[in-house]
Amino acid sequence: MAGVSVTFTVNGREVTATVDPRTLLVHFLREHLKLTGTHIGCDTSQCGACTVHLDGRPAKSCALLAVQLEGAEVTTIEGVAGPDGMHPMQAAFKEHHGLQCGFCTPGMVMMGIDIANRHEAPDEATIRRELEGNLCRCTGYHNIVASIAAGASSMRG
Amino acid sequence: MYPFTYHRPASLDDAKARLSASEDGRPLAGGMSLLPTMRFRLTSCADLVDLNGIEALAGIERGDGHVRIGAMTRHAAVVESPEVGEAIPALAALAGSIGDVQVRNRGTIGGSICFADPAADYPAGLLGLGATVNTDRRAIAADDFFTGLYETALEDGEIVVSVDFPVPARAGWAKFGNQASRFAVVAVMVSLSGGSVRLAVTGARSHVFRVPEMEQALAGDFSAEAMDGIAVSSEGLNEDLHADKDYRAHLIGVMAKRAVRDALAQ
Ligand code: FES
Ligand code: FES
After folding, report:
1. Tens-place pLDDT, residues B146-171
2. What is the DSSP string of A19-44?
3. What is the domain partition of chain B in residue ranges?
4. What top-level class would CATH report for the domain A88-156?
5. Model-level pTM greater than 0.80?
């Protein structure tokens, strides 16, 4: 199968590659770019562990082909920290014990940042509703919800 | 996934040309159903024609007495649209109940109706609101569009361009969703326009359907109580691990009442 050339931006850096059209974005990130922070937690596009931001909005990178990304801007968990260290949402997950095994965490943090971007001061019900597409098998969600509320509040400064 | 050739047309004409040149071509919209299905090797195609680069296919317009939604309009755009929110809030509620945030950012109305999943939400929206599907070659009434399990009236290579929703006097949406997939176990769209009522159910059969007994009762008295005593037969309803057919039949009655109450609350 002929490779297809695609150029897009990942964490602010332009990437050009020739890929088999079947390559999923999540595989491209993990295997070609070695950005292994984005996880694969399921086969059915339901777990959200692979969540990245595509042109500023969360999307499941296991349900996109890399060749579809022409001209797009992608941010992964590796791209959210600033020069001074962790993103406030990451810091909030650390502070509030928002993870146990950590498998779902990259997706949770990417989703948490998006929730904070779209909601002024998200309450518990809002956060739980917005997390419909992110599954966690360890925490019971309580501390994830607390982390996102705290992260949202520190993102507003 | 089985191998395919990927196409990225920039215009509708280009997309049509590539589909008609292919023996086994398939358009790709949001990909929220098609790509997982291809990953499982449940489906495949020789040529995948990606419609995501065709800007003319996306957008929402308020017309005279209707709202037109472009085929490649994402669910999130319908949720956020002031035009939809003002004219048909039940349709915004439907779009907001699809999948999850990530899916709503990518999935499209055109993809949803062309895939025609028996438990998808938009088919009930189209049938319950009496919408018209505009393709690259004709207009198809929602009543004629959904023809079976994953089947529509579309011909080979025919591309959905937009959907026109007449603005109803009232409409309501009620959904009992599967907790894991967020697909409808049963969901109902009801609308009232100039004394006539449409009530459409998704999730319960091979494809979306209307319930004439309920529509007649509601045309005389648009209230949840008007449907008291109307029992939907469980004959031919879907059965799976989430709900057997008797439970689905019961849910149709419950969701129909909730949809009417939702319509009356707006
Ligand atoms: S790996 Fe993408 S949703 Fe689970
Ligand atoms: S911390 Fe283990 S899956 Fe969420």
Report:
1. 999 999 999 999 999 999 999 999 99
2. E-TT-BHHHIIIIIS--TTS----SS
3. 1-50, 58-265
4. mainly alpha
5. yes
Secondary-structure class of domain A4-79 per CATH = alpha beta
**Shortest alpha-carbon distance between residue B52 and chain A (Å):** 8
Domain ranges of chain A: 4-79, 88-156
Give me ligand 2 centre to Cα B71, in Å: 37
CATH of B58-265, one of 3.10.25.10, 3.30.465.10, 3.20.20.80, 3.40.50.620: 3.30.465.10
* Chain A (41-100) residues lying within 8 Å, Cβ to Cβ, of chain B: 43-46, 48, 51, 54, 57-60, 63-65, 67-68, 70
Residues A73-124 have pLDDT tens digits of: 999 999 999 998 999 999 999 999 999 999 999 999 999 999 999 998 999 9
Two structure tokens written together for A143: 């501390």
Label residues B161-192 b or e (16+ Cβ within 10 Å = b). bbbbbbbbebbbbbbbbeeeebbbbbbbbbbb
The interface pTM score, or ipTM, of the predicted complex is 0.95
Q: What would the two tokens of residue B61 be?
A: 């317009």
Overall fold of domain B1-50? 3.30.43
Instruction: Determine whether the shortest distance from the Cβ of A32 to ligand 2 is under 6 A.
Output: no
Minimum-distance CB partner of B181 among A46, A59, A70: A46
